[in-house]
Amino acid sequence: MDKLAEGDLVIFVDHKGRSFMQRLDPKKIFNFHDGQIAHEEVIGKPDGSEILTSIGKKVLVFRPTLKEYIMNMPRKSNIVYPKDISIILMWADVFPGARVVEAGSGSGALLLSLLRAVGNEGQVISYEEREDMLERARKNVERFGGIPPHLTLKKGNIYEQIEERDIDRIILDVPEPWRVLPHASVALKSGGIIVAYTPTIKQAEQFVAAVKSSSDFMFLQTIEVLIREWHIEGLSVRPEHRMVGHTGFLSLARKFIPVSPLQE
């Protein structure tokens, strides 16, 4: 049975489904609205245990999933949300062993997901212009399980260059992704996919226009991901009053080799 140990990240989940992330330390006590939980009482229990707080409230304790970690980790900026990340990974076909360039690193939400998707045989190179953001991303990756050998964090401006070659995928979360296309044209393998995550439709429109005017990128699609949860309790079965609505637009394109003038 998989037991929780000192130093493990865990989430405590209350009766309303609210979660609170902690790293287990036998000297610490977690104080919240349902009382206190001494970490030493959690260490040694199986993952997924139900425990009682100091005032007798039931709480569940789990190791966090990647989604739970992303939603609870420290941030210095807005993140790419799990609903968008999941579509990026599938629509862009981020496969085990892929070499992926990402920009910018942000707080590391997309970065963590890319690292898991490509696995130890792949490589993720993450460009970030701001030193403080690069450090935040590094700390969040390290906190979740250490810095893996297949990660390269680079302080640099991706608008100026992409140093790598033979890249399988490029994922952009930058204000002006169209400025990256000339460098992506050189860095991407033929058949490689580029994705631009943009908060506004005007940014998406400008990226798509640049793709369509290029000579070696085929525009695939622009999509928006919406999630609506449902309330299911007895005879009350209805959509939740609140939903995760707009976060950003995803625009995808694929590199191809155009016919040479001699072949025409």
TrEMBL record:
Its EC number is 2.1.1.220. Coiled coil: none annotated. Keywords: Methyltransferase, S-adenosyl-L-methionine, Transferase, tRNA processing. The keyword Hydrolase does not apply. It is an enzyme of class 2 (transferase). It catalyses: adenosine(58) in tRNA + S-adenosyl-L-methionine = N(1)-methyladenosine(58) in tRNA + S-adenosyl-L-homocysteine + H(+). One of its GO terms (biological process) is tRNA methylation. InterPro entries: SAM-dependent_MTases_sf, TRM61_C, tRNA_MeTrfase_Gcd14. S-adenosyl-L-methionine binds at residues 107-110, 128, 173. Signal peptide: none annotated. Residues 59-232 form the tRNA (adenine(58)-N(1))-methyltransferase catalytic subunit TRM61 C-terminal domain. It comes from the Bacteria. The keyword Thylakoid does not apply. Catalyzes the S-adenosyl-L-methionine-dependent formation of N(1)-methyladenine at position 58 (m1A58) in tRNA. Homotetramer composed of a dimer of dimers. Belongs to the class I-like SAM-binding methyltransferase superfamily. TRM61 family. This is tRNA (adenine(58)-N(1))-methyltransferase TrmI.
